[in-house]
Design brief:
A hairpin with a 2-residue loop joins strand 3 (58-71) and strand 4 (74-85). This protein has 130 residues and is α+β, with helices and mostly antiparallel strands. The mean pLDDT is 94. The chain has helices at 6-15, 21-28, 44-57; strands spanning 29-37, 40-43, 58-71, 74-85, 90-101, 107-118. Strands 2-1-6-5-4-3 form a six-stranded mixed sheet. The chain is built from three helices and six strands; from the N terminus they run ααββαββββ. The termini are far apart.
Protein backbone atom coordinates (compact mmCIF):
# COMPACT_ATOMS: atom_id res chain seq x y z
CA UNK A 1 0.00 0.00 0.00
CA UNK A 2 1.22 3.51 -0.81
CA UNK A 3 1.63 5.71 2.24
CA UNK A 4 -1.08 8.33 2.61
CA UNK A 5 -0.55 12.04 3.12
CA UNK A 6 -2.64 14.93 4.38
CA UNK A 7 -3.77 16.05 0.92
CA UNK A 8 -5.22 12.66 -0.01
CA UNK A 9 -6.77 12.23 3.43
CA UNK A 10 -8.48 15.66 3.56
CA UNK A 11 -9.68 15.41 -0.04
CA UNK A 12 -11.26 12.01 0.65
CA UNK A 13 -12.69 13.00 4.04
CA UNK A 14 -14.17 16.40 3.21
CA UNK A 15 -14.19 17.21 -0.48
CA UNK A 16 -14.98 13.97 -2.34
CA UNK A 17 -18.62 13.42 -1.38
CA UNK A 18 -18.88 10.43 -3.71
CA UNK A 19 -16.65 8.56 -1.24
CA UNK A 20 -18.36 7.12 1.83
CA UNK A 21 -16.90 8.56 5.04
CA UNK A 22 -16.23 5.12 6.54
CA UNK A 23 -14.31 4.11 3.42
CA UNK A 24 -12.31 7.35 3.53
CA UNK A 25 -11.40 6.85 7.19
CA UNK A 26 -10.45 3.20 6.63
CA UNK A 27 -8.27 4.22 3.68
CA UNK A 28 -6.18 6.73 5.65
CA UNK A 29 -6.41 5.91 9.39
CA UNK A 30 -5.69 2.79 11.46
CA UNK A 31 -8.32 1.17 13.73
CA UNK A 32 -6.38 2.40 16.80
CA UNK A 33 -6.09 5.98 15.44
CA UNK A 34 -5.78 8.83 17.96
CA UNK A 35 -5.67 12.57 17.39
CA UNK A 36 -4.88 15.61 19.52
CA UNK A 37 -6.13 18.92 18.17
CA UNK A 38 -5.30 22.09 20.07
CA UNK A 39 -4.58 20.02 23.18
CA UNK A 40 -7.75 17.87 23.09
CA UNK A 41 -7.29 14.11 22.57
CA UNK A 42 -9.79 11.96 20.72
CA UNK A 43 -10.03 8.40 19.45
CA UNK A 44 -11.09 7.12 16.03
CA UNK A 45 -14.80 7.19 16.96
CA UNK A 46 -14.63 10.84 17.98
CA UNK A 47 -12.67 11.61 14.80
CA UNK A 48 -15.44 10.05 12.70
CA UNK A 49 -18.01 12.06 14.64
CA UNK A 50 -15.96 15.21 13.93
CA UNK A 51 -15.71 14.46 10.19
CA UNK A 52 -19.42 13.65 10.00
CA UNK A 53 -20.25 17.05 11.50
CA UNK A 54 -17.79 18.89 9.25
CA UNK A 55 -19.40 17.32 6.19
CA UNK A 56 -22.71 18.88 7.26
CA UNK A 57 -21.11 22.33 7.54
CA UNK A 58 -18.82 22.39 4.50
CA UNK A 59 -19.89 22.69 0.85
CA UNK A 60 -16.42 22.58 -0.75
CA UNK A 61 -12.83 23.59 -0.27
CA UNK A 62 -9.22 22.82 -0.93
CA UNK A 63 -5.95 22.14 0.86
CA UNK A 64 -2.57 23.72 0.19
CA UNK A 65 0.50 22.04 1.67
CA UNK A 66 3.31 24.50 2.41
CA UNK A 67 5.82 22.11 4.00
CA UNK A 68 5.83 18.32 4.20
CA UNK A 69 8.45 16.02 5.72
CA UNK A 70 8.75 12.24 6.13
CA UNK A 71 11.29 10.30 8.16
CA UNK A 72 10.45 6.62 8.46
CA UNK A 73 7.18 6.42 10.42
CA UNK A 74 7.24 10.15 11.23
CA UNK A 75 5.33 12.67 9.13
CA UNK A 76 5.00 16.43 9.56
CA UNK A 77 3.44 19.19 7.56
CA UNK A 78 2.15 22.73 7.56
CA UNK A 79 -0.94 23.22 5.46
CA UNK A 80 -3.83 25.62 4.93
CA UNK A 81 -7.38 24.40 4.48
CA UNK A 82 -9.83 26.74 2.75
CA UNK A 83 -13.46 25.83 3.40
CA UNK A 84 -16.62 27.13 1.76
CA UNK A 85 -19.46 26.68 4.21
CA UNK A 86 -23.04 25.86 3.23
CA UNK A 87 -24.08 29.40 4.26
CA UNK A 88 -21.62 30.78 1.66
CA UNK A 89 -18.87 32.18 3.86
CA UNK A 90 -15.25 31.06 3.53
CA UNK A 91 -12.74 30.25 6.23
CA UNK A 92 -9.02 29.54 6.06
CA UNK A 93 -7.17 27.60 8.74
CA UNK A 94 -3.44 26.98 8.93
CA UNK A 95 -2.50 23.64 10.51
CA UNK A 96 0.78 22.47 12.01
CA UNK A 97 0.69 18.66 12.08
CA UNK A 98 2.97 15.94 13.44
CA UNK A 99 2.05 12.31 12.89
CA UNK A 100 3.09 8.69 13.33
CA UNK A 101 2.41 6.38 10.43
CA UNK A 102 1.58 2.68 10.69
CA UNK A 103 3.66 0.14 8.72
CA UNK A 104 0.82 -0.05 6.16
CA UNK A 105 1.17 3.70 5.41
CA UNK A 106 -1.92 4.96 7.25
CA UNK A 107 -2.02 7.58 9.99
CA UNK A 108 -1.85 6.01 13.47
CA UNK A 109 -1.57 9.19 15.54
CA UNK A 110 -1.81 12.89 14.68
CA UNK A 111 -1.05 15.86 16.90
CA UNK A 112 -1.96 19.21 15.43
CA UNK A 113 -2.39 22.87 16.25
CA UNK A 114 -4.68 25.09 14.20
CA UNK A 115 -4.71 28.81 13.55
CA UNK A 116 -7.72 30.56 12.00
CA UNK A 117 -6.37 32.84 9.27
CA UNK A 118 -9.73 34.19 8.07
CA UNK A 119 -13.41 33.53 8.67
CA UNK A 120 -16.02 34.00 11.37
CA UNK A 121 -15.00 33.84 15.02
CA UNK A 122 -17.00 30.59 15.29
CA UNK A 123 -14.70 29.02 12.69
CA UNK A 124 -11.87 29.06 15.23
CA UNK A 125 -13.25 25.86 16.75
CA UNK A 126 -13.78 23.90 13.49
CA UNK A 127 -10.91 21.58 14.45
CA UNK A 128 -12.94 20.37 17.45
CA UNK A 129 -16.56 20.58 16.28
CA UNK A 130 -18.67 17.46 16.81
Amino acid sequence: MTSTDITRAINDLLFDRSLDLTEAVDRHFTPDYRQRTNGVWGDRASFIQHMTRLRTLIRSGHIEVHDELRDGPRYADRHTVTLVHHDGHTSRTEVYLFARMAPDGRFRCVEETTLLVSGHADDENLGLVK
